Amino acid sequence: MSLWSSLLQTYDAVNSSAGITPLNEDVNKTLLPLYHTTLKTQLQVTLDEDGQLVKIERDRVDAEIIAPCTEQSMGRSGTVLPPHPLFDQLQYIDTKYDSAKHEAYLKQLDSWRADNAKLNAIYQYLSQYSVIEDARAQGIEIDPKKDSKIGVRFAVRVRGPYEPAVWGDCEIQDLWIAHEEHHSDSLGTDLLGETLYKPSTNFPKKIVSVNGNAKLISANDNTNFTFRGRFADRDEALSIDTLTSQKIHSTLRWLAAKNGTLTGSQDIVIWAIDDHPTDDVLNPTGNSHDVSEQLDYRTDSEILVDAGTQTYVDYAQQFGKLLRGYGNEKTLQQMQQHSRRIVVAIFDAATSGRLSVTFYRELSKDEYIENVLQWHEDSAWYLTCFDNKNSASAGDEVPRRSKKATDKPKPILYIGAPSFADIINCVYSTDDHSSDSYRRFAKYVKKQLVECMFNNTSLPSSLMQPAFHKVTRPSSYDNISVWQHDLEVACSMWKKHYIDQDKKLPLEERNNITMDLDEKRTDRDYLFGQLFALADNFEYRVLLKQNGGKTPERTTNAIKLMNNFVAKPSTTWLTLRQQLNPYIRSSTNGVFFQNEVDEVMHKFKEGDFESNKPLSPLFLLGYSHKRRQLIQRADAAKQLKEQNTENKGE
User: Residue 568: helix, strand or coil by DSSP?
Assistant: First the structure.
C-alpha cells in the first residue's frame, strides 16, 4: 500500500470519532471533521437568537477551536486570503478593515446558513454592527493595526436546552459538511484510484505543528516550472478528489499530533492500520526502560530493588522471552495486539511551505515489534536513565548540566538499549543543545536511527566513530556522571556494531559479543581495556577509602590519561603503572591488584602488548566488562561482610 492508501484506510476506521475532543485534551489532537480546520481565537461574541449583542469577552491567551473552512481558506497563504465560512480573523468579521473581505465573508455565510437559528443570529448581527465599536463600548480596547488577525468565535443563546457555544455544535458542523459535499456526477477516478467528483485545487496546511504553513501537496506555481517540464497544466500533473484530499490531510494531521515524535521540523509518525491506529504501538525512539513500560509486563525476577532506591531491571531477558514466544497469557495477548500492519513514516518541513516524505515503510504482522525488540536485544547494555519528573529538558534522559541537589533526578539502572535522544547526546560534540546546529543534527540522526532499526542495517560510521572519540576524552566533560552515561551508550552502540558484523560471518567464526566479561578473549584491544579498568578501579578504591567512604573529589589518573592510553596504550600503561606505585605499596589490596594485572598480561599474544598502535573501540567493551566485574565483586564482598556481622550479633 502507499501512504495515501494507508491514510484513507485509517480514516475509514476512525471517522466516527471526528470532531470529538476528549476531556482535557488539546484540540490539535482531535480528528477534524471534513472541511474543518483549527483557529486560534481571543474574542468571544455572545448573542441572543435575534442577533442582539449580549456581551463581548477577550481572552488573555488564545483559545483554539474547530472551525469550518473551504478548500481555499484551509490552505490560504500569501496575498490570497479567502474567508472562512464562520469563525475567522477580525479583518474578515468587521467591515471597518476591508469591506471587500467582509462582503465576501457575509456572502459565504449567507450561502449555507439556511434556517439554523444560531447562524442566522450571527449573520444578522454582523450585517448591521461592528465588533470593534461594540467591544470598545464594553471597555475592551482593540488596536485596529495590531489586532486585525485575532480570531473571533461566537456563542448564541437560543431557547431550549442547547449549549450557546457555536464552535462545539455538531449540527452546524454537519450542516457545513453537507454544503461542501459533492453534488455532481463522477468525472472518473483520480490519481489515487478514488472516485473523482471535484478535483482539489488547493491543499491544506497545518499538518506538522512546528511549521504550520508547510503543505504535503502543492501545485500552485505557474512560473517556476513546477509541473510545466512534463505537463501542460496542473490538472494533468495532479488530480485528487476534494473529499479524498480532506480525508488524507485530516487523518495525517491527527496522527502527527497523536503519534508523532517531533524533532525540529521533522515528524516521525507511527501507526497501525486497523480499528485502533493510535493504541498499543511501541514508540521505537525510547530506551528499553520506556519500551518495557509500554509493554506493561514485568516479572518479579526481573525487578530487583537495591538499597530501596535503585532498581535493576533485566529487560533484555524479557525481550528475549517475547522474541522466542515465551511469556504468560498477558504477554501473548499483547503480541497478538501487534499482529497487524504498522506504518512508519518520516515527514520533514524542509522549507516554510513544503512538507516532504523522507521515509516510509509498512511492516506486516509481528515484523514491527520484532524489529524493535531485536534492536533492543542487540543494543542491550548496562545503562542508567533518570526519572523524567525532574529532568533538565524534554527528550533529554540525562541531566546534561549541573543542577541543584534538590532537583537531582532519581537514577534507574537497567539492561537494555539507549533511547534515540541518548545516542544523539552521546554523538554530538558539545553539551549545548539550544543551537540550530544541534536541532539539525538531531533531526538527521533520528532519521538514520529509524532506518537502521526498521531496515535491519548497521549503525553508520558517522555515528560510531564520534561516539568512540568523544567518550575517550573524559576531560572534555564538565560532569563526570554525564561522561559515564555516554560511555554506557557508546558501549551499547559498539556492541550492536560487532553483533551486526558477526551476523555476516559463519557461526564458527563469530565472536559472540555479550554484556559480560569474556575470560577467554585474547584480542589486544579488549585486554588493554581490562588493564585500564584494573588501574582505574584500584586507584578509585584507594581514594574512596582515603575520603572516608565518600565519593573522591578528583578523578583517577587512569581517567585523566584515557585519551593518551587509546592513542599509545603500551607507553601510557607504563606511565600509569608508575603513578600507581605509591598506592600499591600503601594499600592492603596491592598484591591482589598486581595478581589481576599479571593474569591479564598473560593473555596477550606475542608482540601485542609491546605494540603501540592506537586501540579500536573494542577497548571500551573490555574496559566496561572488567570494570563491572570488579564492582560486582566489591558489592558481593560488602554484602558478605554485612551478613557475617549480623550473624555474629545474633
Answer: coil
- Grid coordinates standing for 552? 573522591
Packing angle between helix 461-471 and helix 480-502, nearest 10 degrees?
Answer: 140
230: its cell numbers:
512534463
Q: What residues contact 90, with CB distance under 8 A and at least 6 apart?
A: 43, 97, 131, 132, 142, 147, 148, 149, 150, 151, 152
586 burial (CB, 10 Å; 0-12 / 13-18 / 19+) is: exposed
- 398 pLDDT more than 60: no
Per residue in 193-229, pLDDT (tens digit) is 887 877 777 777 777 766 666 777 765 556 665 555 6
From the list 239, 247, 242, 248, the residue with the least C-alpha distance to 70 is 242
The chain-wide mean pLDDT, for the chain, equals 81
Residue 236: its pLDDT value, please?
A: 67
17/484 Cα distance (integer angstroms): 47
SS3 426: helix
SS3 323: helix
Give which of 287, 377, 360, 269 is closest to 323, Cα–Cα. Answer: 377
Q: Give the whole-angstrom CA distance, residue 438 versus residue 130.
A: 49
Q: DSSP code of 31? A: -
**pLDDT score, position 627:** 94
Residue found under cell 481571543 = 42
- The predicted structure's pLDDT at residue 477: 92
DSSP 607: T
Strands of 5-52 (E only): list them. 36-48
Q: Return all residues near 221 (Cβ < 8 A) that are at least 6 apart.
A: none
Q: Are strands 342-348 and 88-89 parallel, antiparallel or unpaired?
A: unpaired
Angle, helices 569-586 vs 590-601, to 10°: value is 160
The pTM of this model reads 0.75
Asked whether 375 and 14 are in contact (CB, 8 A), the reply is no
Whole-angstrom Cα distance, residue 534 to residue 593? 7
C-beta of residue 96 within 8 angstroms of C-beta of residue 60: no
Predicted local confidence at residue 328, as pLDDT = 47
Helix, coil or strand: residue 436: helix
CA distance 625 to 48: 76
Write out the H or E segment, with its range, that includes residue 348: strand 342-348
- Kindly give the interhelix angle for 367-378 and 288-295, rounded to the nearest 10 degrees: 140
CA pair distance 637, 634, nearest whole angstrom: 5
Spatial strand order of the sheet with 53-68 comes to 53-68, 36-48, 151-157, 88-89
Grid cell digits, residue 290: 520506556
**Cα 232–236–238 angle (5° rounding)?**
130
